[in-house]
Amino acid sequence: MWMVQMNVGGCSAQVRGILFDKDGTLLQFISLWGWWAETVLSGLERELKKEGGELPEQPGYILGVYIEENGSVRKHDRQGPLAMGSPSQMIGIATYLLYKEGVPWNEAVQRVTEVFDYANEQVLDRANIVPISGVVPFLERCRELDLPMAVVTADDKRPSEQHLEKMGIRQYFAAVIGDDCVEHGKPYPDMVELACRELGLQPHEVAVIGDSVGDMEMGHSAGSALQVFIDEERQFDAKPAKADVMIRAYDEIELTL
């Protein structure tokens, strides 16, 4: 397997593979998770009302999203739980709300899990999942160069594959690694190490592309060749710590043999 020269933003590295985060890196984050967050918060509100409670004054903080006056979710905190946390971590945060109202923890977990499961089941049909600009041509270029690719996501494996299939890009990836595939999720190196084993590569032979600090820390801790931070939404003025370079779009990356 040959090396491919990756040039981006004044940085360069020779790589044999590329690992991609999913949400905010392959697909526009809110196009999937906006409706999902609205549904989860609505479900949590119903459960809390059964106990005579209510959502906090700023309920978006539970998931790390910003709620508009009309109740819709159009933005998220790139350093919040929805952006970087695992499904089980978010369930834990929401479960505490019911526990505070006197619901036994085991019952609270069950009720919150049902809220999350409903949102997960409905989101594929209700959400309009939109790819990040330029991602498909970039994936095609990688395939032309026989560059193996994998997804490393804080989401679980099964729903992640469903999201990729709905966008029509699952076939580009030799592996999909979810939070439920490893002992330690982001920012630990486990996902990179597992993805590399499945691709038959070493961490120092791959680049990591992601849109969160957790992605960059994960790649850096694994010793990957290059950490590329993508910020299509232009929320960052400068690249975050552990990122080697920041881009706004995929056409800023040049791949050559």
TrEMBL record:
A GO molecular function held by the record: hydrolase activity
The superkingdom listed in its UniProt entry is Bacteria
* This protein's record includes keyword Hydrolase: yes
What keywords are annotated for this sequence in UniProt? Hydrolase
Coiled-coil annotation reads none
InterPro entries assigned to the protein according to its UniProt record, in alphabetical order: HAD-like_hydrolase_sf, HAD-like_sf, HAD-SF_hydro_IA, HAD_sf
One Pfam family recorded for the sequence:
Hydrolase
Report the PANTHER family cross-referenced here: PHOSPHOGLYCOLATE PHOSPHATASE (PTHR43434)
Name listed for the protein in its UniProt record:
HAD family hydrolase
